[in-house]
Sequence to fold (95 residues):
Amino acid sequence: MTVRIRSLLTSGPIMVSLNSGRTVRLSPGRWSAELRDAELADNAKVDRLSRRGDIELEQSGEEPEASAAQEAPAAQEDTGAAKGPRARKRTDSAG
Fold:
């Protein structure tokens, strides 16, 4: 199953930490992308934000197979980006 998070704040963004270590930034009144329910299960911060009325959770039906297939390449892209910054310009020492 999938879950979406909506920010109920009227001003300023809200940061929601997920169980995987990722963070979702939500502008006021905006919905997150669909997330696996395991990302929010037994998450103390999500429970606290929900109790305070800062966020709303919406349960969706079954997890679409297409989104599961898209998450695997996205994970590969993230690991590639973590290698470090590239040099902007190469200089030749031979002249």
Q: What stands out?
A: Residues 25 and 93 are 45 Å apart (CA to CA). The longest helix spans residues 65-81. The longest strand covers residues 2-7. The helical segments are 44-52, 65-81.
